[in-house]
Amino acid sequence: MFSARKMSGVCRAIRFHHFRSHSVSRTSPNLAFVPACLPPDPLDVEELQRFVSNSKRLFVMTGAGISTESGIPDYRSEGVGLYARTDRRPIQHAEFVRSASARQRYWARNFVGWPQFSSHQPNRAHLVLRDWEKLGKLHWLVTQNVDALHAKAGSQRMTELHGCTHRVFCLDCGDQILRSELQEHFEALNPSWKAEAFGVAPDGDVFLTDEQVRNFQVPACRKCGGILKPDVTFFGDTVSREKVDFVHQRLAESDSMLVAGSSMQVYSGYRFALAAREKQLPIAILNIGPTRLDHFASLKLNSRCGELLPLIVVNDPTS
């Protein structure tokens, strides 16, 4: 039997405390970065219920829209996404690799933002999907997010398509450390460095001026002195062929696809929707705003993931 822990290229488990559904569901969602939308229509609930009930081996793909209710902004949402609020753009892979000043700027901003970013907790949508997995409804989960919220919620049959910010690796020797451990190295190298952030961005980033980051010291790999990089796929980089093939295998074993909280504008995720269409699998989309799949989806719902998904009933087959 395949396992996320046994497959190279699939997320390595991070040991998080599991969060009980009732403890999170009583907490009001953080809607600062969630686009406005109407409450779920009862007919929409019925349609999604029918879709999920008819699915025996559900393949789920999530995007940034599932984590906005945990207080993490996305890139593209109208009015509240990074691209709508600012003219800032995420770092490019090639820029990070070739430019020491770009790495200094990235890590300074990441250092300031890390305590808050790493403290975000899964919301009801993450917990519902974890429960579907436990009940045997969810066959495999693929997330385009790098925030570790699915792992924190307890999902195990999962691939982190673009990696995870909670891991860091050396570009030269491949050695891996936890991002929390690297934070201690930053603090040791920069005991008197302080900076006030101007706004928050996705993926643990904040906004700093060039003057603020000028004296920030970045540690090298302790094993070989190489360049340290978060274990995530930056813009301009590609997902490994091994990981893509593994996800295609899990999709081939599935009988339907649910997209939750993603406009699917990035091809690394969109390719799996194209494969699902080619296999003639029914596709349901739960996302506020239009997506790249709207013209061929079986079902499109314009609601918050954390508001609609908990309304869907999945029965325990053993009860």
UniProtKB/TrEMBL annotation:
One of its GO terms (cellular component) is mitochondrial matrix. It is found in: Mitochondrion matrix. NAD(+) binds at residues 63-83, 144-147, 261-263, 287-289, 305. This is NAD-dependent protein deacylase. Its EC number is 2.3.1.-. NAD-dependent protein deacylase. Catalyzes the NAD-dependent hydrolysis of acyl groups from lysine residues. It comes from Limosa lapponica baueri. NCBIfam families: PRK05333.1.
